[in-house]
Amino acid sequence: MNALKRVDFYRKYTNEDRVSTLLGACFSLLTMLIILTLCGLELSIYMYPHLNREVVIDRTPPTQENTLPMNVKIAFPKVPCNCNFATP
Predict the structure, then answer these.
(1) What is the pLDDT of residue 46?
(2) C-alpha angle with apex 55: 51 to 61, nearest 5 degrees?
(3) Is 57 part of any domain?
(4) Which of 23, 77, 36, 15 is nearest to 5 (CA)?
(5) 81 inside domain
(6) By the 8 A CB rule, do 18 and 11 touch?
(7) Could you tell me which residues are beta bridge partners of residue 12?
(8) Is-contact 51 60, C-beta < 8 A?
């Protein structure tokens, strides 16, 4: 029990003496557990990000009034015409 009371980070001061309590030790351990859990979750989110490979602009059905025509021109400079990957 005394070993657990030594973990108390939030000690009460009585007559300029530190008094460790069991409730303070439990609070300290719970606080450290929450901090370590949150740090672990943040590290896992950083190490394994969620990649979304689609873009949704609008979910309404397309009509003539709400469509936006887009032309995309892609140029590949310095690629010879006889490439193996360019032929079907």
Answers:
(1) 92
(2) 145
(3) no
(4) 23
(5) no
(6) yes
(7) 19
(8) no
Pair of tokens at residue 24? 């303070």
Q: Give domain status of residue 67, yes or no.
A: no
Domain count, the chain: 1
For residue 76 the two structure tokens come to 């590949």
Judge whether residue 48 has pLDDT over 80.
yes
Looking at per-residue confidence, does 78 or 23 come out higher? Answer: 23
Which of these, 48, 41, 12, 9, lies nearest to 28 by C-alpha position? 9
Is 60 among the domain residues?
Answer: no
Q: For residue 23, what are the domain limits?
A: 2-47
> Dihedral sign, CA of 39, 6, 4, 17?
negative
pTM of structure:
0.45
